[in-house]
From TrEMBL:
GO terms for biological process: DNA integration; DNA recombination. InterPro entries: DNA_brk_join_enz (IPR011010), Integrase-like (IPR048120), Integrase-like_cat_sf (IPR013762). The keyword Acetylation does not apply. It comes from the Bacteria. Keywords: DNA recombination. The lineage of its organism: Bacteria, Pseudomonadati, Pseudomonadota, Gammaproteobacteria, Enterobacterales. NCBIfam families: integrase_1. GO terms for molecular function: DNA binding. Gene3D superfamilies: Intergrase catalytic core. The keyword RNA-binding does not apply. It comes from Enterobacter agglomerans (Erwinia herbicola). This is Tyr recombinase domain-containing protein.
Length: 506
């Protein structure tokens, strides 16, 4: 293990901003949170003694005062900086060469400026006055936050209504099939409905799921993370439905049961309040009875890693083959896209920057304007002329084709607007959906190969045009689009089977 050569006789152990995390200046790795572990050693081994002392002590200041993610960013950029060129001190010439390079982004320059100014301010050697004056007067281009929202980026930006609905259906479908756990279901739903960042989602504890019986309201106390405060220092309430409340309370019960099983005893009320809503299974397996158990539970050590959100969302999209109608590929998913989607939908409904900022938990209104500027005119639309083409790959249809002679499913026959049978329902559960419109996107639908699907498609396209003539709102016009694509896909599959009967259900 690499040991840093640091002359510091005053302190051996330092406390990171996140409670429960400690590090030493001579440690190769600094663990600042459950998500952030810095490789400081790979940076310091490239530095002279003069620069090494100044760097680790300045980094120590940041580790104690700012968020672990920001410290990680500073360490990453400085590693990039020293890999770009060699120097014994950071002076004006070094920074002029760096600024003229095209290897650094605007965000990189911002990080370097913050580091250099604080390094000099703390009085450590290695930085010249001219260097500080230079970076202090830098004009750094805006890092273009909100660009993916403005251009409706199909890979990173807000989801279209169709993409959103397809993914939402896929979450329920994946759980019914058993391809995701109850915890995955709860994590996906809380991300979709709140639009919060992954780190916020994974910081939630079971005590944050609340039912105010006196006013018959349910809500989540969601930790705030962008205000420069310590771990779970402040919260913002987010109202939820009773149905979601029941799902999250069941997730809390499952977590409590897992901890009780691990410890071999019933948990106290005090312990139960500190349990994470989403637990890191690997760390849970290492939990044992100890004097500081409550301290461990109170910290973030047993919470799921933030990356778990993105992994869960992407696994659902992949296993359920959720295709974007814009790209023809499986949708790239992360929590940020649901955040963008929520902001875009709020703007579309006519809400202003203040309301959007409040609901998205922004500390400033600096970036909420991007949602309002995008406006409803830039909504993605589906053209009727290409609906059949889209249906070939969009995979809205989730059921299985059958022959009309296979009259065997418990849900009975499904009829289209003309009264003709189009298929059957394979579910024996009560369904309150207004058939047949929702059926074509339902996993339980079993359309007949010989069914009158072309008639339904013609009716749906006419209905869409009728709505478009009556209402100028593009959102209302697009209500039938998912079904139109699903019916088109069924028609294409029927044609394929009729030309080659061997492919039925193959």
């Amino acid at each position: 293990m690499n040991k840093l050569k640091v002359l510091n006789a005053h302190k051996v152990i330092f406390h990171a901003k996140n409670e429960g995390y400690r590090f030493g200046l001579d440690d190769e790795f600094w663990e600042l949170s459950r998500n952030i572990k810095l490789n400081v050693g790979e940076v310091t081994e490239r530095l002279s003694d003069n620069l090494r002392y100044g760097y680790v002590n300045t980094l120590k200041y940041f580790a104690e005062e700012i968020s672990p993610g920001s410290v990680k960013q500073i360490n990453r950029v400085f590693m990039k900086f020293i890999s770009f060129m060699s120097f014994d001190s950071i002076d004006e010439a070094v920074m002029l060469t760096t600024k003229s390079s095209n290897k650094f982004s605007s965000q990189d320059f911002i990080c370097l400026r913050i580091l250099i100014k604080k390094w000099y301010e703390l009085g450590f050697e290695g930085i010249t006055q001219n260097c500080v004056d230079l970076v202090d007067n830098w004009t750094i281009k805006d890092n273009k936050k909100g660009e993916v929202v403005k251009r409706r980026d199909p890979y990173q930006g807000p989801l279209t209504d169709m993409e959103f609905d397809n993914f939402y259906d896929a979450v329920s479908r994946a759980y019914q099939k058993g391809t995701i756990s109850y915890s995955d279901l709860a994590m996906a739903l809380i991300t979709i409905h709140t639009g919060r960042r992954s780190l916020q989602i994974t910081q939630i504890k079971t005590k944050d799921i609340i039912n105010e019986r006196t006013i018959d309201e349910c809500y989540i106390n969601i930790p705030r993370i962008k205000q420069g405060e310590k771990y779970r220092a402040s919260f913002r309430r987010f109202r939820i439905t009773h149905e979601l409340f029941n799902i999250f309370k069941e997730q809390a019960r499952i977590v409590s049961e897992s901890f009780s099983k691990q410890l071999g005893r019933k948990l106290s009320e005090k312990e139960m309040l500190e349990l994470p809503l989403f637990v890191c299974k690997e760390r849970l397996e290492g939990v044992v009875e100890c004097e500081n158990l409550h301290e461990i539970l109170s910290s973030d050590r047993l919470h799921a890693y933030a990356i778990k959100c993105t992994q869960t969302l992407n696994r659902i999209a992949t296993t359920e083959d959720v295709i974007s109608e814009r790209t023809g590929e499986v949708i790239n998913m992360n929590a940020r896209r649901f955040r963008y989607t929520l902001g875009t939908r709020l703007a579309r409904e006519g809400y202003g920057e203040v309301v959007i900022g409040e609901l998205l938990d922004h500390s400033t209104l600096m970036y909420t304007g991007v949602y309002v500027q995008s406006g409803p005119d830039s909504l993605n639309k589906i053209e009727d002329a290409v609906s059949a083409e889209l249906g070939y790959y969009a995979k809205m249809f989730q059921g299985v084709l059958i022959k009309k002679s296979e009259d065997k499913y418990p849900g009975g026959n499904i009829r289209i607007n003309t009264g003709e049978k189009s298929g059957q329902c394979a579910s024996c559960k009560s369904c309150t959906a207004c058939v047949p419109i929702p059926c074509y996107t339902c996993m339980h639908f079993r359309p007949f190969v010989e069914g009158p699907h072309e008639k339904l498609l013609e009716y749906l396209l006419d209905e869409r045009n009728r709505i478009q003539c009556i209402v100028a709102d593009p959102v209302t016009t697009q209500i039938l689009d998912r079904t139109i694509i699903a019916v088109s896909e069924v028609i294409n599959k029927c044609k394929e089977i009729k030309s080659n009967p061997e492919v039925l259900n193959g």
